[in-house]
Design a protein that fits this description.
By secondary structure, this protein is α+β, with helices and mostly antiparallel strands. It is built from four helices and eight strands.
Length: 137
């Protein structure tokens, strides 16, 4: 992740590495999420389940209004993320234990995932992922 942030820093002409906690609006996170779209989500097989991770999107959630997803073209659902802590030094920190950065599914049940993010300015971005693109060991 640090390498991605450093590359993004260089792409946008910033002298120091970009840290997620410094980005809290759509205008700030849109270029990052656009450049890293292939990392938005991940699937991992763990203890007999498929786990669908939203960790990357959560790191930039302060510039988002909502995250929606659909597995295998079923009904779209909203992923409930923890709030942005805008009054704190690290607004994008993940600190709530009750809200996990993933959802469990039956083993080998995820074939495709459609993701729709809504930025805090109302603009949207959509991506479709095949299992092979997002599966991690």
């Amino acid at each position: 992740m640090r390498k991605i942030l450093t590359v993004a820093s260089l792409m946008f002409g910033l002298a120091t590495p970009v840290m997620a906690q410094n980005f809290t609006t759509a205008a700030e996170v849109r270029p990052i999420l656009g450049a890293t779209q292939g990392n938005w989500i991940a699937v991992r097989e763990y203890e007999g389940r498929d786990l669908l991770y939203f960790t990357h999107l959560l790191a930039w959630r302060c510039g988002l209004d909502s995250i929606y997803f659909s597995v295998n073209e079923e009904d779209e659902q909203r992923f409930e993320a923890e709030p942005c802590y805008e009054d704190e030094a690290t607004p994008n920190a993940l600190k709530v234990d009750e809200i996990l950065p993933y959802l469990p599914f039956d083993l080998q049940s995820i074939d495709t995932v459609d993701v729709r993010i809504v930025y805090d300015d109302g603009e949207e971005a959509i991506a479709r992922f095949e299992r092979a693109q997002i599966q991690i060991p």
